[in-house]
Design goal:
Layout (H helix, E strand, L loop, with lengths): L10 H14 L9 H10 L4 E5 L5 H7 L4 E6 L2 H13 L6 E5 L2 H8 L4 E6 L6 H8 L2 E9 L8 H7 L4 E4 L4 E4 L3
The structure holds S-adenosylmethionine.
């Protein structure tokens, strides 16, 4: 039996991101599986999501497509400008708030959103970044940490989240914030 690869609703943003990173040299690879993010958001009934690492809006589009309100952060204004236009083209601009700046400067103001999902996709994850990001997450909320094989802090991050229900999918770690 032959299997057909599922169609990616936001393939155009993924393609634009891959073309952009070649020219810009920014290394902002789009998340590998946008539909996984949307499936997790739908299963969690997520109303609010905080994302670190917008790039051109590929993962934000998938997360917002579930009806969640997404706060997404990127330090590069070229990225957030382009994300704005991609999200508008997909009629998702009203579901996404773009924050341009350094995550550590922006996340404290987002602590009050009490997000259902916090998604890390900002290059190599560090314990400090995960700490800052998860302050925005409500108890029982889901952390999705991407890029776990980058940067060499995976073991420290797993230790940091040892008391959280978690599972390791290789590149991505899922962990539920304790009540
Ligand atoms: C891997 S890309 C994000 C890909 C995006 N989630 C997608 O699926 O298309 C990482 C992005 O995170 C941003 N970034 C990395 N570290 C950051 C930080 N400390 N604060 C804000 N933005 C950051 C980079 O500018 C880059 O655009």
């Amino acid at each position: 039996m032959t299997r057909t690869a599922p169609r990616d609703r936001f393939a155009a943003i993924k393609t634009a991101t891959l073309a952009h990173l070649e020219q810009h040299g920014c290394g902002c690879y789009p998340y590998a599986d946008g539909s996984l993010l949307a499936t997790l958001a739908a299963a969690a009934g997520a109303a609010t999501v905080v994302e670190l690492g917008t790039a051109l809006g590929y993962s934000a589009a998938w997360l917002a497509s579930t009806g969640a309100q997404v706060h997404t952060i990127d330090r590069d204004p070229v990225h957030t400008r382009q994300a704005q236009s991609h999200l508008a083209r997909h009629h998702l601009a009203d579901h996404v708030t773009l924050h341009t700046g350094e995550a550590t400067d922006i996340l404290p103001a987002l602590a009050a959103v009490s997000a259902d999902i916090a998604f890390f996709d900002g290059f190599a994850p560090t314990t400090a970044a995960i700490d800052a990001l998860t302050t925005t997450l409500r108890p029982g909320g889901l952390l999705i940490a991407g890029n776990m094989t980058l940067g060499g802090q995976a073991d420290q991050i797993r230790a940091q989240l040892a008391s959280w229900q978690h599972t390791d999918l290789g590149e991505t770690l899922l962990a539920v914030k304790p009540h």
